[in-house]
């Protein structure tokens, strides 16, 4: 057994524990983990010994069966009410010293190690019962390995997925998907989405956002703010006459066209999700062209499905500007559903006036329809994404761009 230095205070060797108690190292490990294969009397004896030395065993850890060729250092969380601060510094310093000297091969510890422990030569971590940890905890713990040029691995031990609740499965999926450099922001957003942000503008933290998702909540919030701005505080924005006014915040598009980023083009799931998010935030044609060029440079020639997706993004922006809340394209038929609220300022706008002129002149074969106080515009023979995009673009030029803004 390696000679212990004075600075090694706070580190307990499992071999020494076994010798002092007159039991095997396997028995000590199982007793500390709460494994049922050790008698209650033996388990209590080992735990009492650890507490006598002012250690609190981690009862969440599974049994670790040791091999003769390995030395194992056990680090336990102290009772912070009696040893707050000073013990933590001494323990972490001692652990870093002995592990840096390679005196020990395995470190068995509680989540105390997430508090800034830096051991560059550590390259493997095993997290037991990972489904019980929060997403930020898992991210911090995972960051304790791979802190040098050595390839690192982090293994999460969990029960069957069927036995875990949905939130635990989402946390594990997120920690698996976002594993690259700079993934902290994505993990934070996933954590916010899973746990919910509550009532952001008020004192109450209800957490209802978990039912609809963070992005949907943001969209609803933006719609509420837009409604307040137009109806309650119209004078605040009188100076924005040169800015194109939008009467809807988003347009939902449903179609039977194959528009997506296929797995054969971008294999990594998290990368595809990231690309979809970037597309969702594009607000200008120049940004879309830049995104398309970057996609071509990174992954090669765009397949037809991706080209169609780029057209859908462009169509979506055009529809928002024209007051279209929903676009339905199936079986060669395209239906545009306009603002559902009859009292909306859209129906008194120049855009709507130009839209009526566009339909009257029949520059494109279409017909207006009103059902249940909902106005829609119907086109036929829309056989592909390109034709749909041409029709929407033509309509956009005649109704919105003709205003010169």
What would you note in describing this structure?
There is one protein chain. The chain has 405 residues and is α/β, with parallel strands linked by helices. Helix content is 42%, strand content 12%. It is built from 14 helices and ten strands. The strands form three sheets. Strands 6-7-8-10-9 form a five-stranded mixed beta sheet, covered by helices on one side. A three-stranded mixed beta sheet has the order 1-2-3. β4 (124-127), α6 and β5 (153-156) form a beta-alpha-beta unit. The longest helix is centred in the middle third of the chain and has 18 residues, at 214-231. The chain is elongated. The termini are far apart. Residues 1-11, 56-72 and 76-87 have low confidence and may be disordered.
Compact summary:
The protein is 42% helix and 12% strand. The chain has helices spanning 14-21, 25-33, 40-52, 80-83, 86-100, 135-142, 166-177, 184-195, 214-231, 269-280, 285-299, 304-321, 350-361, 385-399, and strands at residues 12-13, 72-75, 106-109, 124-127, 153-156, 252-255, 324-330, 333-338, 366-371, 374-380. The N and C termini lie far apart (80 Å).
Q: Could you say which structural class the secondary elements and strand pairing correspond to?
A: alpha/beta
- Estimate the global geometry from the Cα principal axes: elongated
Output mean pLDDT.
76
Q: What strand order characterises the main sheet?
A: 6-7-8-10-9
Could you give the order of the helices and strands? EHHHEHHEEHEHHHEHHHEEHEEH
Portion of residues in beta strands equals 5-15%
Q: Number of helix segments?
A: 14
Q: Which regions are unreliable across 5 or more consecutive residues at pLDDT < 50? A: 1-11, 56-72, 76-87
Distance between the termini: 80 Å
Radius of gyration: 31 Å
Largest sheet: 5 strands, mixed
